[in-house]
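I'll show a record.
***
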Amino acid sequence: MAHSFGESYRVDSTSGIHAITVFCSWDCKVTQKRASRLQQDNIRTRLKELLAEWQLRQGPRSVCRRLRQAAALGLVWLLCLGTALGCAVAVHVFSEFMIQSPETAGQEAALLVLPLVVGLLNLGAPYLCRILAALEPHDSPVLEVYMAICRIISEKKLKRRRKPEFDIARNVLELIYGQTLAWLGVLFSPLLPAVQIIKLLLVFYIKKTSLLANCQAPRRPWLASHMSTVFLTLLCFPAFLGAAVFLCYAVWQVKPSGICGPFRTLDTMYEAGRVWVRHLEAAGPRVSWLPWVHRYLVENTFFVFLVSALLLAVIYLNIQVVRGQRKVICLLKEQISNEGEDKIFLINKLHSIYERKEREERSRFRTSQAAVPPTLFTDERDA
């Protein structure tokens, strides 16, 4: 994530990036036709992204347009929140009615009504929110991803007579959601990462085939570097840290089931490590180093603080490297600006010297003409 952040936000301003992309992006070591064609496509896509971003920044926005956009966003948000609250209240009221109703007691079929209602709401509510999301006037694709995150619901364009666009926001959310589920379930199902890998491989090739056959290019180009930074940031902080906190709480605080499971005789799952260490101590001196490792490296908080300090130090160093690169770039920009001013000064100086020499030559020529006697000119004409 730190590397992607540096690649994405290394330069503060985008002045001159179009010229750099046009004149400095080509790799002269490329000799094969396929590689050169691929490089041409990459540069073309990069220029489309930059021009789309430049047009977005240059486009004037009136006060009325901003007010209309704010009103539309507020209305859509209120409708989406009302839909979510309405579904929650409906499920709560229906569940209370099912619990208090004497007719449903003892009937197994009636117990399936509530899950059926919840499933129908989960199936229908996202489509309603997607219809409402189509009314949102967003200009930035990154803002679309943020709005989609705030609603674990993606934005999708209304289907028209043309081919649909590939919804990058929804697919990014699906990747984050699937990876979060894999992190949450790895403690309870150790083979879940293998299933996740197989699922990702299958889904990737299926979506690639569907994209090439059924979808068209998006009307607004997506800036790939910024989108990868957003994806990694969202995957690291909300997803990974949330799953880590949940799993740590489940291991240290939650009491396991007393009916089934490998931890049914323990108060917490963390005590399984201590029981294992006691068995190792009773096994003999050959494995006596394992209890020592558990005692001084796992249970000792100093080791945890040391690892945390090293992690913070690495993050701090990466931040300082990015800041240093920004300072170097600023210094190089100042140096280029100063060199340009020096060249302009030298050109103006040379131009003034040249004009002064021309004026001196003209004055000398006029002086020499004025110094020649008129009879000389008459003799020359007579001759």
Observations:
- The chain is about 75% helix and 0% strand.
